[in-house]
Amino acid sequence: MTELRAAVIGLGAMGANHARLYAEIPGIQLCAVADTDPARASAAAHGAAVYGDHRRMLDEARPDLVSVCVPTLAHFDVAAAVIERGIALLVEKPLAATLEEGERLRDLAAARGVPLTVGHIERFNPAVIELKRRLQAGELGRIYQVHARRLGPFPHRVRDVGVVLDLAPHDIDVMRFLLGSEVVRVQAETEQRIATEHEDMLAGVLRFANGVVGVLDVNWLTPTKIRELAVLGERGMFVVDYLARELTFFENPQAAPPDDPAWAAHHGKGVAEGPRMAIPIEKREPLRAELEAFAAAVRTGESVSVTAEDGLAAMRAAEALIRAADSGHGVDLPLPAEAS
User: Fold this and answer.
1) What is the DSSP string of 106-164?
2) pTM above 0.85, yes or no
3) To pair with 92 at 20 to 30 A between CA atoms, which of 238, 259, 272, 289?
4) How confident is the model at residue 159 (pLDDT cuts 50, 70, 90)?
5) 149 and 113, same structural domain?
6) Does 105 lie in the same domain as 15?
7) What is the SS3 string spanning 216-251?
8) For 87-113, how does the pLDDT look when each residue is reduced to its tens digit (9 = 90+)?
9) Based on the structure, what is the number of domains in the chain?
10) How would you classify the pairing of strands 236-241 and 226-233?
11) Are residues 325 and 206 in the same domain?
């Protein structure tokens, strides 16, 4: 197996984890790290070369792949420098600070033939992967609603964007992934309750093209960290605990059996409280799985798991949520051409 040379730009909390895993994963050599804070870079280097200038690092270390983990407002400039040098890159979500910048990065990468993936890590959570498999198998029947709660205290590392752009794209992307459908309309309310320039609370509603309703409850105001997703359907409800990587099913015993479509005609329809079932999940670290998938795509030349278009779709919905909150009105989103 050809060893890939990896580098990380931005050694905050997430960047440090990227560096740790690149140093651990077989077939990958962490060759360099770059950060404007030399002490922070050195602390996360794991023996790799340390740089204060990412452009110099790219030119001298010549990595095969790079993780861009800088603050959101710097995503475009740093990612563009990586693309200009023809190096595969993973950009932590959101893809860019604005939709226009994200589209420019997509176009630059396409023109240079550079693999570009976006760090929507929840797609690699083993509980989400198992939930996707079960939904595709029809175990929930018709899906009614997906409800995400992403709550916690204010992260002092984030000052450049608000909670909508920083956190909501995680769950927007997971909803798209699970439903295989695009957001066509949003409504939202936001609040600014702590001393920052941006919103720190979001209550949002998404309408998907397939009729499913998504609900987003996101804030930096809760004194405990909650990361939860519930998918409600005619046969019950699946609940994902992202942090514990657990999947639970709550059955609706009055739902029609999947192999007897005529059941409702004889027994009626309804909802009742049913048994709870914990579904066994292999506890893999999502970030490791994400980086392994990225490296595999670079090594084989296959498509990346999370494309620039996926990142842009999450950004479009997030920006629409901000517009909806500012205007007090719902915002419609056009379907992508391939989904029309």
Assistant:
1) HHHHHHHT--EEEE-GGGG-HHHHHHHHHHHTTTT-SEEEEEEEEE-S--TT--SS-HH
2) yes
3) 238
4) low
5) no
6) yes
7) EEEECCCCCCEEEEEEEECCEEEEEECCCCEEEEEE
8) 999 999 999 999 999 999 999 999 999
9) 2
10) antiparallel
11) yes
